[in-house]
């Protein structure tokens, strides 16, 4: 895997923090993440992405799989969330996606692809909304 030096991903003080090319940046409280996945797309070298789903309504953030610190951030996030987060899609396969975490949803399809930006699978959103396959609440959550 090549490293994208123009982007970085880190877990800092309980938040997942991304900085990308062109000033793209976001910060998400790690405890608000409902699912983590990966997808492959075609275009401009950004063909292997990580996705962080933050609500059952379809809100998500993306980061380059090759971002500096991505492996370390995923390992730290996995420890915090209670399950390994290990990407493994072949970046050469366009239009593939899968859930990496939570374990109860791991391996299921994450995105639908068509024209324009991919969108989260309706079945995944339904499962997140109903709690099917979701991890048990972490300490301090109700």
Outline the structure in words.
- The chain is an alpha+beta fold.
- The protein has one domain (4-130).
- The chain is 15% helix and 33% strand.
- It is built from 2 helices and 10 strands; from the N terminus they run βββββββαβββα.
- The protein has helices at 70-81, 122-130; strands spanning 4-12, 15-19, 25-29, 35-40, 48-53, 60-64, 67-68, 97-101, 111-112, 119-120.
- The strands form 3 sheets. A 4-stranded mixed sheet has the order 3-2-1-7, covered by helices on one side.
- The longest helix is centred in the middle third of the chain and has 12 residues, at 70-81.
- The protein starts with a strand and ends in a 12-residue tail after the last helix.
- The model has no long low-confidence stretch (mean pLDDT 85).
**Major pleated sheet:** 4 strands, mixed
**Secondary-structure element order, as H and E?**
EEEEEEEHEEEH
Oligomer: single chain
Domain unit count = 1
Count of helical segments? 2
The pLDDT mean sits at: 85
Low-confidence residue ranges? none
SSE arrangement:
Layout lengths: L3 E9 L2 E5 L5 E5 L5 E6 L7 E6 L6 E5 L2 E2 L1 H12 L15 E5 L9 E2 L6 E2 L1 H9 L12
Parallel strand pairs: 1-7
Antiparallel strand pairs: 1-2, 2-3, 4-5, 4-8, 5-6, 9-10
Q: Summary?
A:
With 142 residues, the protein is of the alpha+beta class. The chain has helices at 70-81, 122-130; strands spanning 4-12, 15-19, 25-29, 35-40, 48-53, 60-64, 67-68, 97-101, 111-112, 119-120.
Brief descriptors of the model:
2 helices; alpha+beta; 142 residues; single chain; globular; four-stranded antiparallel β-sheet
């Amino acid at each position: 895997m090549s490293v994208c030096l123009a982007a970085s991903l880190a877990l800092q003080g309980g938040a997942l923090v991304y900085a990308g090319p062109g000033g793209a940046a976001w910060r998400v409280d790690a405890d608000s993440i409902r699912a983590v996945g990966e997808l492959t797309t075609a275009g401009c070298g950004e063909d292997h992405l990580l996705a962080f789903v933050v609500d059952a309504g379809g809100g998500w953030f993306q980061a380059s799989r090759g971002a500096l610190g991505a492996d370390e951030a995923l390992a730290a996030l996995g420890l915090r969330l209670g399950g390994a987060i290990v990407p493994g899609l072949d970046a050469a396969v366009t239009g593939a996606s899968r859930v990496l975490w939570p374990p109860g949803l791991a391996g299921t399809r994450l995105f639908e692809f068509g024209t324009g930006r991919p969108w989260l699978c309706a079945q995944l959103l339904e499962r997140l909304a109903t709690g099917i396959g979701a991890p048990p609440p972490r300490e301090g959550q109700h």
